[in-house]
Design goal:
Elements: H1 16-19, E1 26-30, H2 39-50, E2 55-61, H3 67-76, E3 82-86, H4 105-108, H5 122-134, E4 140-141, E5 146-147, H6 152-170, E6 175-182, H7 184-187, H8 189-201, E7 206-212, H9 226-241, E8 245-248, H10 252-260, E9 265-269, H11 272-275, E10 297-300, E11 305-308, H12 309-315, H13 327-334, H14 339-355, H15 362-378, H16 395-402
Parallel strand pairs: 1-2, 1-9, 2-3, 4-6, 5-6, 6-7, 7-8, 8-9
Antiparallel strand pairs: 10-11
């Protein structure tokens, strides 16, 4: 199956205006490079189940796609009001991103994906915006990339010059201020305050922020660094008080917690690279050695954790385990576990979690959900406890953060 356009039922979810209003949380779903053939189904399921209580966005990552592929996918999800085509300007060599590499053949085909000009350039800005428009985006990201922490004041000032040019060209159309930066901008008080001050003082209301995390263990686990988690809380609460809307890119369930604390939304996806923008350990093996078999994983809505599928299956029969069933978990039950089905199940489960934040006290609602998961774990007998990659280590830190 390909990403070719298909007939879609009338949209039952939030409108573009409501999705970006801050009145409902926005879940941005990244298209993964693999297993995306059925992704368009997920948006319809979310809209039908949650209606106007959840904003839903479809997002593609332009450098990893061909122009034709980007257009085809966006045509397939044209019924989704919020569509984002991320130019990922931080990928360019010498951008400042620690893991930047020379562009591959496909990335090089995107003419806009070059080093940022030394001075604000209207033609280059236009090329970045046009690439998004031409791919079918309904909400644009400003022509800004990596934000260096080396000289914070200068970096911020320069970035905002590019934002101003982007806004001049976009006019009154929806646009998010697009910044990617090291996690030091969260953990370092001086840097964090500088970022918050810029957001608060800027005339721009909507911000799309991506933070480069240190390595997260285990893979498909959650961020545990206390300083970073507190940084997310300070950022989310301070900006919300000033009526600013902050969307946290590639932040997975950490973004869900931050949304409960005041952020306007977050993005995630089926694969680890969409769930966490984080350093990774080089994956190497001895010549001739076979790769270890891929671990089948499944997201469990009770303990809010992606675990070994066999452990997930074992938990389902436990007392007080509350299963969240989806069409994709039903397919697994009827047939067999696949990475595609498990990833689509994860997205619908996160949609249910995010829609559950709509209310006057979202942090309380999230705390109750996290506490329920920890109570379930605490109630397991020693022999039934989860271990290794299946053990959720994030619930206790989250409860502390959400108090």
């Amino acid at each position: 199956m390909s990403d070719q356009p298909t007939a879609a039922a009338p949209w039952q979810g939030a409108t573009l205006k409501r999705s970006l209003s801050g009145k409902v949380p926005l879940l941005i779903v990244n298209r993964s490079h693999q297993n995306a053939q059925r992704l368009h189904e997920v948006f319809g399921h979310m809209a039908a189940e949650h209606g106007k209580d959840l904003g839903v966005a479809a997002q593609i990552r332009l450098p990893g796609m061909s122009s034709a592929g980007a257009t085809a996918f966006m045509s397939n999800v044209q019924h989704v009001p919020v569509r984002i085509a991320d130019p990922e300007l931080w990928r360019v060599p010498n951008s400042g991103w620690p893991s930047a590499k020379p562009l591959n053949t496909n990335e090089s085909k995107w003419a806009y994906l070059t080093a940022t000009p030394a001075k604000v350039s209207a033609p280059w800005t236009k090329s970045v915006l046009d690439a998004q428009r031409g791919s079918g985006a309904s909400v644009l990201l400003s022509a800004t990339g990596w934000l260096s922490e080396a000289n914070a004041s200068k970096s911020l000032a320069t970035a905002m010059e590019w934002v101003a040019e982007s806004r001049r060209q976009v006019g009154s159309d929806p646009m998010l201020v697009n910044l990617t930066m090291d996690s030091k901008w969260l953990s370092d008080t001086t840097l964090r305050n500088a970022l918050i001050d810029e957001i608060v003082e800027s005339p721009e209301r909507s911000w799309y922020l991506r933070f480069w995390w240190p390595e997260v263990k285990p893979r498909y686990g959650q961020l545990l660094d206390d300083a970073l988690l507190r940084g997310y809380r300070e950022l989310a609460t301070a900006t919300a008080l000033e009526g600013k809307r902050v969307y946290l890119a590639n932040s997975g369930l950490t973004g869900w917690v931050a949304t409960a604390l005041g952020a306007a939304g977050f993005s995630t996806g089926q694969a680890w690279g969409e769930q966490a923008f984080a350093a990774t350990r080089p994956m190497g093996s001895q010549k001739g050695a076979k790769r270890p078999p891929r671990i089948p994983r499944m997201f469990d809505s009770t303990v809010l954790h992606t675990m070994d599928f066999n452990e997930y299956s074992r938990l389902r029969g436990m007392p007080k385990h509350r299963e969240y069933s989806t069409p994709y978990s039903a397919e697994i039950d009827a047939d067999v576990h696949t990475a595609e089905r498990a990833g689509l199940h994860y997205l619908l489960a996160v949609g249910e979690l995010t829609a559950g934040l709509k209310g006057t006290r979202p942090h309380f609602l999230a705390h109750r959900r996290v506490r329920r998961g920890q109570n379930f774990i605490d109630g397991l007998s020693p022999v039934d406890q989860l271990n290794g990659i299946s053990k959720p280590l994030h619930l206790t830190p989250w409860m502390k953060l959400l108090r």
